[in-house]
Amino acid sequence: MQIIPVASGKGGVGKSLLSANLAIALGQAGKRVLLVDLDLGASNLHLVIGQTAPKAGMGTYLTGQTPFSQIITRTEYENVSFIAGDSEIPGLTSLRASKKNELIRNFQELEYDYLILDLGAGTHLTILDMFLLSPQGIIVTAPTVTAVLNGYLFLKNIVFRMMYNTFKKGTPAHQYLETLKKDSASLQRLYIPKLVEALDKVDPQNTALFKSRMAEFRPRLVLNMIDDPKDAERANKIRRSCQEFLGLNLEHMGVIYRDSLQDKALASRLPVIVYKPQSIIAQGIYRIAEKIIHSETLSFDEGYDLTQASETSFQIAAEEADEDYGQKMAYVEELVGNGTLTTGELAEAIKQQQYELNRLRAENLLLKKKLVDAARQGYKLN
Q1: What is the pLDDT of residue 186?
Q2: DSSP-assigned letter for residue 312
Q3: From the CB of residue 169, how many other CB atoms can be counted at a distance below 10 Å?
Q4: b vs e for 324-361, b when ≥16 Cβ sit within 10 Å of the residue's Cβ?
Q5: I want to staple 172 with a disulfide (CB 3.0 to 4.6 A). Which of 77, 203, 241, 248 is the partner?
Q6: pLDDT band at 319 (very low <50, low <70, confident <90, very high)
């Protein structure tokens, strides 16, 4: 079984669109597929495939109400089964380690051709570990500055997570990382290849294992929502940045053009490849499905057990790293230095963020005024 986790770092780039339509495309090719909504707290994958959310799903399983075997439902699409999420429960960050490990074991025991995991947004531990269930996960991004930055941030967090899964507590490499962690901002500015060179000097045996796992790790990139053929070049720049700064080889799966038909398909409660199979977006998804079908199913070495991963030591790229300004600026510097992002694009992004901040300040002042007025009114009534 080939496990295909689909992530994006942040929402809004078409991650669920790709997951749902890719599952159906693979099903149409005669492959048995299980599609899983793991975007807990913001679950909407059932809407993308046009299915009413069943009463039993990931939420009822995680809360102990339903056995895992009973949350898998059939869909009306050939060869495609589905596990719905649950928007009424907290996101994946709230999972206990024991429950996460139980879920991982259940996934690994399934018998399908493909298991597609639509992951939640962000860089939290459980999301990272679910992405690392396979060396062949898909990272979805768009040509915008924020989408590229968030996608790159996600991949860098993945590499750090792999480090801490490999360099166990008590090893010289782990001790070295713990020392560097005292200045996490400086650590984030270290290019991964340079960091690996330093680790190799203090712990050559475990560093060799890490290098081996990095060689096994072949995440795939899909560039979505492009409007112009020139936007497609952004994918190659992202790949070069990952190679230079992360020591990571990305496989480019293809691009998907922005298509207004997606909104019409969603309103009709139909996946776009069913609503309009000949559309530009559908053809892009079919090409990606074809590449997956003809790809070899890869796996990490047998010693790489995510159910034994530490929950406490992973602090370098902390769970909320995407909210940390200093760390985010380190990512910006890397991408600008490589030419993935231009200074003009950054300037435009800053202008947009400034506009959003001013709007939020205005809304905040209005809310404060309403609260003060309500408090005064209550005081008068009393």
Answers
A1: 62
A2: S
A3: 11
A4: eeebbebbbebbeebebbeeebeeebeeeeeeeeeeee
A5: 203
A6: very low
Task: Give the whole-angstrom CA distance, residue 181 versus residue 293.
Answer: 41
pLDDT value of residue 317: 42
Closest by Cα among 8, 235, 251 to 118? 8
Q: How far is Cα 224 from Cα 262, in angstroms, rounded to an integer? A: 12
State pTM to two decimals: 0.81
Q: How long, in residues, is the chain?
A: 382
Residue 151, classified by CB atoms within 10 Å of its CB into exposed (0-12), middle (13-18) or buried (19+), is: buried
Contact of 281 with 256, CB cutoff 8 Å: yes
Question: Is the pLDDT score of 86 beyond 80?
Answer: no
**Residue 99: CB atoms within 10 Å:** 15
Q: Give the per-residue pLDDT at 367.
A: 74
Q: Which amino acid is at 229?
A: P
pLDDT tens per residue, range 202-214: 999 999 999 999 9
pLDDT, residue 315, reads 44
Dist CA 61 CA 99 (whole Å): 10
Dihedral pair phi/psi, residue 219, rounded to 5°: -65, 155
Instruction: Find the angle CA(322)-CA(328)-CA(334) to the nearest 5 degrees.
Output: 135
**In the predicted model, what is the mean pLDDT of the chain?**
82
CA angle 212, 213, 215 (to 5 degrees): 65
Q: What's the CA gap between 358 and 286, in Å, rounded?
A: 43
Residue written as token pair 């007025």: 373
